[in-house]
Amino acid sequence: MFGNIRSAVVGSINMDIILSADRLPEVGENVLGSAYSYAFGGKGANQATALARLGAKVKMIGKVAEDANGQSLLANLKNNNINVAGVAVNGSQTGLAAILLDGQGRNRIIVYEGANAEIVPAEAEQHIDDSLDLLLVQFETAEEVVTRCVNRAVQKNIMTVVDCGPAKPFCLEKMQGITILSPNESETKALTGIFPDDEEKILTASRILKERSLAQFVVLKLGEKGCSVFDGDNLTLLPPYPTNVTDTTAAGDCFTAAMALEFAKNGDILKACDLGNKAGAFAVSKLGAQNSMPTLEELLNM
Ligand code: RIB
After folding, report:
1. Catalytic: 102?
2. Is residue 155 classed exposed, middle or buried when 0-12, 13-18 and 19+ CB atoms within 10 A define those classes?
3. Residue 232 alpha carbon to ligand 1 centre in Å
4. Which of 59, 201, 204, 226 could serve as a FRET partner for 77 with CA atoms 20 to 30 Å apart?
5. What's the pLDDT at 112?
6. What mean pLDDT is predicted for residues 129-146?
Protein backbone atom coordinates (compact mmCIF):
# COMPACT_ATOMS: atom_id res chain seq x y z
CA MET A 1 0.00 0.00 0.00
CA PHE A 2 2.77 2.46 0.95
CA GLY A 3 5.65 0.41 -0.52
CA ASN A 4 6.44 2.83 -3.33
CA ILE A 5 6.79 5.88 -1.04
CA ARG A 6 10.44 6.87 -0.57
CA SER A 7 10.75 8.79 2.68
CA ALA A 8 13.45 10.33 4.86
CA VAL A 9 13.36 11.41 8.49
CA VAL A 10 15.76 13.99 9.90
CA GLY A 11 15.65 13.82 13.66
CA SER A 12 16.60 12.54 17.07
CA ILE A 13 17.58 9.03 18.11
CA ASN A 14 17.34 8.35 21.87
CA MET A 15 17.54 5.50 24.33
CA ASP A 16 14.46 5.84 26.55
CA ILE A 17 14.45 4.67 30.15
CA ILE A 18 10.86 4.25 31.30
CA LEU A 19 10.17 4.29 35.03
CA SER A 20 6.60 3.58 36.12
CA ALA A 21 4.88 4.51 39.39
CA ASP A 22 1.22 4.76 40.43
CA ARG A 23 1.75 8.47 40.83
CA LEU A 24 4.71 10.71 40.04
CA PRO A 25 6.62 12.43 42.89
CA GLU A 26 6.12 16.06 43.90
CA VAL A 27 9.23 18.25 44.20
CA GLY A 28 11.47 16.85 46.98
CA GLU A 29 9.35 13.69 47.33
CA ASN A 30 10.49 10.09 46.86
CA VAL A 31 7.94 7.48 45.66
CA LEU A 32 8.35 3.76 44.97
CA GLY A 33 8.26 2.73 41.33
CA SER A 34 6.47 -0.37 40.02
CA ALA A 35 8.66 -1.23 36.97
CA TYR A 36 11.36 0.05 34.66
CA SER A 37 12.55 -0.82 31.17
CA TYR A 38 14.73 0.48 28.37
CA ALA A 39 13.11 1.23 25.01
CA PHE A 40 14.19 2.54 21.62
CA GLY A 41 13.02 6.13 21.20
CA GLY A 42 13.73 9.63 19.93
CA LYS A 43 11.09 11.49 17.95
CA GLY A 44 12.94 11.09 14.66
CA ALA A 45 13.69 7.40 15.07
CA ASN A 46 10.14 6.75 16.30
CA GLN A 47 8.68 8.33 13.17
CA ALA A 48 11.15 6.46 10.94
CA THR A 49 10.14 3.18 12.60
CA ALA A 50 6.44 3.92 12.13
CA LEU A 51 6.97 4.73 8.43
CA ALA A 52 8.96 1.52 7.93
CA ARG A 53 6.48 -0.72 9.78
CA LEU A 54 3.69 0.74 7.67
CA GLY A 55 5.64 -0.36 4.60
CA ALA A 56 7.41 2.76 3.25
CA LYS A 57 11.06 2.91 2.19
CA VAL A 58 12.84 4.94 4.89
CA LYS A 59 16.18 6.68 5.21
CA MET A 60 17.14 7.97 8.69
CA ILE A 61 19.31 11.09 9.03
CA GLY A 62 20.69 11.86 12.46
CA LYS A 63 23.56 11.22 14.85
CA VAL A 64 24.48 8.81 17.67
CA ALA A 65 27.73 8.12 19.53
CA GLU A 66 29.87 5.03 19.30
CA ASP A 67 28.56 3.86 22.70
CA ALA A 68 26.43 0.86 23.65
CA ASN A 69 23.14 2.77 23.32
CA GLY A 70 24.12 4.12 19.91
CA GLN A 71 25.00 0.63 18.68
CA SER A 72 21.76 -0.98 19.82
CA LEU A 73 19.64 1.90 18.49
CA LEU A 74 21.32 1.59 15.09
CA ALA A 75 20.88 -2.18 15.06
CA ASN A 76 17.20 -1.76 15.86
CA LEU A 77 16.72 0.75 13.02
CA LYS A 78 18.36 -1.72 10.63
CA ASN A 79 16.13 -4.53 11.93
CA ASN A 80 13.19 -2.37 10.94
CA ASN A 81 14.57 -2.14 7.36
CA ILE A 82 15.59 1.50 7.75
CA ASN A 83 18.55 2.75 5.73
CA VAL A 84 20.97 4.26 8.27
CA ALA A 85 23.61 5.54 5.83
CA GLY A 86 22.61 9.08 6.90
CA VAL A 87 23.23 8.45 10.60
CA ALA A 88 26.63 9.73 11.72
CA VAL A 89 28.25 7.75 14.54
CA ASN A 90 30.67 10.36 15.87
CA GLY A 91 28.55 12.06 18.55
CA SER A 92 29.81 12.68 22.10
CA GLN A 93 27.04 10.62 23.78
CA THR A 94 23.89 9.07 22.33
CA GLY A 95 20.69 10.94 23.25
CA LEU A 96 18.81 9.74 26.33
CA ALA A 97 15.24 10.31 27.52
CA ALA A 98 14.09 9.64 31.08
CA ILE A 99 10.35 8.95 30.91
CA LEU A 100 8.33 8.95 34.13
CA LEU A 101 5.05 7.13 33.57
CA ASP A 102 2.08 7.33 35.96
CA GLY A 103 -0.70 4.78 36.56
CA GLN A 104 -2.92 6.50 33.96
CA GLY A 105 -0.33 6.24 31.18
CA ARG A 106 0.61 9.93 31.38
CA ASN A 107 4.26 10.87 31.14
CA ARG A 108 6.84 13.50 32.02
CA ILE A 109 10.02 13.37 29.95
CA ILE A 110 13.52 14.82 30.36
CA VAL A 111 15.65 14.54 27.22
CA TYR A 112 19.44 14.78 27.16
CA GLU A 113 20.10 15.72 23.54
CA GLY A 114 23.74 14.58 23.30
CA ALA A 115 24.59 13.61 19.71
CA ASN A 116 21.23 14.88 18.42
CA ALA A 117 22.38 18.45 19.11
CA GLU A 118 25.64 17.82 17.24
CA ILE A 119 24.14 17.02 13.81
CA VAL A 120 25.99 19.18 11.26
CA PRO A 121 23.35 21.05 9.18
CA ALA A 122 25.32 20.84 5.89
CA GLU A 123 25.88 17.08 6.35
CA ALA A 124 22.20 16.41 7.06
CA GLU A 125 21.09 18.57 4.13
CA GLN A 126 23.20 16.56 1.66
CA HIS A 127 20.94 13.56 2.21
CA ILE A 128 17.84 15.42 0.96
CA ASP A 129 18.00 14.44 -2.69
CA ASP A 130 15.74 13.91 -5.69
CA SER A 131 15.15 10.27 -4.79
CA LEU A 132 12.67 11.30 -2.06
CA ASP A 133 8.88 11.67 -2.10
CA LEU A 134 8.46 12.62 1.55
CA LEU A 135 10.46 14.29 4.35
CA LEU A 136 9.54 14.26 8.05
CA VAL A 137 11.26 16.50 10.61
CA GLN A 138 10.69 17.38 14.28
CA PHE A 139 12.17 19.99 16.63
CA GLU A 140 14.42 17.65 18.67
CA THR A 141 17.50 18.74 16.70
CA ALA A 142 19.03 22.20 16.14
CA GLU A 143 16.79 24.75 14.41
CA GLU A 144 19.28 25.17 11.56
CA VAL A 145 19.23 21.43 10.81
CA VAL A 146 15.44 21.54 10.52
CA THR A 147 15.21 24.69 8.40
CA ARG A 148 18.01 23.77 5.98
CA CYS A 149 16.66 20.27 5.36
CA VAL A 150 13.08 21.48 4.99
CA ASN A 151 13.97 24.31 2.63
CA ARG A 152 16.02 22.00 0.44
CA ALA A 153 13.10 19.55 0.32
CA VAL A 154 10.63 22.32 -0.55
CA GLN A 155 12.94 23.51 -3.38
CA LYS A 156 12.94 19.97 -4.74
CA ASN A 157 9.14 19.69 -4.51
CA ILE A 158 9.38 16.95 -1.90
CA MET A 159 6.33 16.73 0.37
CA THR A 160 7.44 18.02 3.81
CA VAL A 161 5.77 17.31 7.14
CA VAL A 162 6.95 19.24 10.19
CA ASP A 163 6.07 17.73 13.58
CA CYS A 164 6.61 20.53 16.12
CA GLY A 165 7.74 18.38 19.08
CA PRO A 166 9.08 18.98 21.64
CA ALA A 167 7.38 22.22 22.69
CA LYS A 168 9.65 25.22 22.14
CA PRO A 169 9.61 28.54 20.31
CA PHE A 170 10.74 28.14 16.70
CA CYS A 171 11.11 30.65 13.86
CA LEU A 172 8.50 29.13 11.52
CA GLU A 173 9.05 31.97 9.06
CA LYS A 174 12.40 30.40 8.13
CA MET A 175 10.55 27.46 6.53
CA GLN A 176 8.23 28.65 3.81
CA GLY A 177 5.98 26.43 1.75
CA ILE A 178 5.87 23.19 3.72
CA THR A 179 3.04 20.75 3.16
CA ILE A 180 1.83 19.99 6.70
CA LEU A 181 2.68 21.66 10.02
CA SER A 182 1.59 19.55 12.98
CA PRO A 183 2.00 20.57 16.65
CA ASN A 184 0.23 19.02 19.64
CA GLU A 185 -1.55 21.15 22.25
CA SER A 186 1.49 22.19 24.31
CA GLU A 187 3.57 22.78 21.16
CA THR A 188 0.76 25.00 19.81
CA LYS A 189 0.90 26.99 23.06
CA ALA A 190 4.72 27.34 22.78
CA LEU A 191 4.44 28.57 19.18
CA THR A 192 1.36 30.83 19.42
CA GLY A 193 0.74 31.54 23.12
CA ILE A 194 -2.70 29.88 22.74
CA PHE A 195 -3.60 26.55 24.36
CA PRO A 196 -6.15 25.10 21.88
CA ASP A 197 -8.83 23.81 24.26
CA ASP A 198 -11.93 25.04 22.40
CA GLU A 199 -12.91 25.47 18.77
CA GLU A 200 -12.33 29.21 18.68
CA LYS A 201 -8.80 28.86 20.08
CA ILE A 202 -8.07 25.96 17.71
CA LEU A 203 -9.06 28.15 14.76
CA THR A 204 -7.14 31.22 15.96
CA ALA A 205 -3.97 29.22 16.68
CA SER A 206 -4.24 27.37 13.34
CA ARG A 207 -4.59 30.67 11.45
CA ILE A 208 -1.47 32.07 13.17
CA LEU A 209 0.53 28.92 12.41
CA LYS A 210 -0.59 28.93 8.77
CA GLU A 211 0.30 32.61 8.31
CA ARG A 212 3.73 32.13 9.89
CA SER A 213 4.74 28.93 8.08
CA LEU A 214 2.72 29.21 4.85
CA ALA A 215 2.01 25.50 5.31
CA GLN A 216 -0.62 24.06 3.01
CA PHE A 217 -2.33 22.45 6.03
CA VAL A 218 -2.10 22.96 9.79
CA VAL A 219 -3.00 19.80 11.70
CA LEU A 220 -3.30 20.11 15.50
CA LYS A 221 -2.93 16.90 17.50
CA LEU A 222 -5.46 17.30 20.32
CA GLY A 223 -4.77 14.16 22.38
CA GLU A 224 -7.94 12.51 23.63
CA LYS A 225 -10.00 14.96 21.53
CA GLY A 226 -8.57 13.72 18.20
CA CYS A 227 -7.19 16.31 15.78
CA SER A 228 -8.08 19.37 13.73
CA VAL A 229 -7.29 20.26 10.13
CA PHE A 230 -7.09 23.83 8.81
CA ASP A 231 -6.56 24.51 5.10
CA GLY A 232 -6.72 28.31 5.22
CA ASP A 233 -10.52 28.41 4.74
CA ASN A 234 -12.10 25.56 6.65
CA LEU A 235 -11.47 24.04 10.06
CA THR A 236 -12.44 20.36 10.46
CA LEU A 237 -12.39 18.49 13.78
CA LEU A 238 -11.82 14.73 13.56
CA PRO A 239 -12.77 12.52 16.52
CA PRO A 240 -10.30 10.07 18.12
CA TYR A 241 -10.55 6.27 18.08
CA PRO A 242 -11.42 4.61 21.38
CA THR A 243 -8.46 2.91 23.04
CA ASN A 244 -7.10 1.61 26.35
CA VAL A 245 -4.38 3.97 27.52
CA THR A 246 -1.16 2.20 28.57
CA ASP A 247 1.47 4.77 27.62
CA THR A 248 0.95 7.96 25.62
CA THR A 249 4.68 8.21 24.72
CA ALA A 250 5.22 8.53 20.94
CA ALA A 251 1.50 8.53 20.07
CA GLY A 252 2.09 11.84 18.31
CA ASP A 253 5.05 10.39 16.40
CA CYS A 254 2.89 7.51 15.24
CA PHE A 255 0.07 9.91 14.21
CA THR A 256 2.46 12.07 12.18
CA ALA A 257 4.00 9.14 10.29
CA ALA A 258 0.69 7.48 9.40
CA MET A 259 -0.91 10.78 8.39
CA ALA A 260 2.09 11.71 6.22
CA LEU A 261 2.10 8.37 4.41
CA GLU A 262 -1.62 8.35 3.68
CA PHE A 263 -1.45 11.96 2.44
CA ALA A 264 1.58 11.17 0.25
CA LYS A 265 -0.39 8.27 -1.22
CA ASN A 266 -3.78 9.83 -1.95
CA GLY A 267 -3.59 13.60 -1.23
CA ASP A 268 -6.75 13.50 0.93
CA ILE A 269 -5.91 15.33 4.17
CA LEU A 270 -9.04 14.25 6.07
CA LYS A 271 -8.51 10.58 5.25
CA ALA A 272 -4.84 11.01 6.17
CA CYS A 273 -5.66 12.52 9.58
CA ASP A 274 -8.21 9.80 10.26
CA LEU A 275 -5.50 7.18 9.73
CA GLY A 276 -3.22 9.28 11.96
CA ASN A 277 -5.85 9.19 14.73
CA LYS A 278 -6.15 5.42 14.36
CA ALA A 279 -2.37 4.94 14.50
CA GLY A 280 -2.09 7.21 17.55
CA ALA A 281 -4.78 5.17 19.33
CA PHE A 282 -2.82 1.98 18.60
CA ALA A 283 0.39 3.50 19.99
CA VAL A 284 -1.12 4.58 23.31
CA SER A 285 -2.37 1.03 23.94
CA LYS A 286 1.24 -0.25 24.11
CA LEU A 287 4.24 0.48 26.35
CA GLY A 288 7.29 2.16 24.83
CA ALA A 289 8.00 4.32 21.80
CA GLN A 290 9.22 2.38 18.73
CA ASN A 291 7.81 -0.74 20.29
CA SER A 292 4.30 0.68 20.04
CA MET A 293 4.38 1.51 16.32
CA PRO A 294 1.92 -0.66 14.33
CA THR A 295 2.56 -2.65 11.19
CA LEU A 296 0.16 -1.93 8.33
CA GLU A 297 -1.61 -5.21 9.03
CA GLU A 298 -2.08 -4.38 12.72
CA LEU A 299 -3.45 -0.98 11.81
CA LEU A 300 -5.90 -2.29 9.23
CA ASN A 301 -7.12 -5.03 11.61
CA MET A 302 -7.62 -2.61 14.50
O1 RIB B 1 7.94 11.49 21.26
C2 RIB B 1 8.40 10.56 22.21
C3 RIB B 1 9.89 10.64 22.34
O4 RIB B 1 10.24 11.87 22.92
C5 RIB B 1 10.51 9.59 23.24
O6 RIB B 1 10.79 8.39 22.56
C7 RIB B 1 11.73 10.28 23.80
O8 RIB B 1 12.93 9.77 23.30
C9 RIB B 1 11.56 11.75 23.45
O10 RIB B 1 12.38 12.12 22.44
Report:
1. no
2. exposed
3. 30
4. 226
5. 97
6. 98
How many CB atoms sit inside 10 A of residue 168's CB? 12
Look at residue 120 and tell me whether its pLDDT is greater than 90. yes
Average pLDDT for residues 157-166, to the nearest whole number? 98
Residues touching ligand 1 (Cβ under 6 Å) are: 12, 14, 16, 41-43, 46, 97, 109, 111, 140, 165, 249-250, 253, 289
The rounded Å distance from CA 295 to ligand 1 centre is: 19
Residues in a beta bridge with 109:
99
Which of 65 and 301 is assigned the larger pLDDT? 65
CB 104 within 8 A of CB 110: no
Domains of the chain (ranges; CATH) run 6-13+42-93+117-300 (3.40.1190.20)
Distances (CA, A) of 172 to 135, 163, 215: 17, 12, 10
For residue 275, give the nearest of 299, 292, 244 by alpha carbon. Answer: 299
Confidence of residue 182 (pLDDT cuts 50, 70, 90): very high
CB atoms within 10 A of CB 11: 31
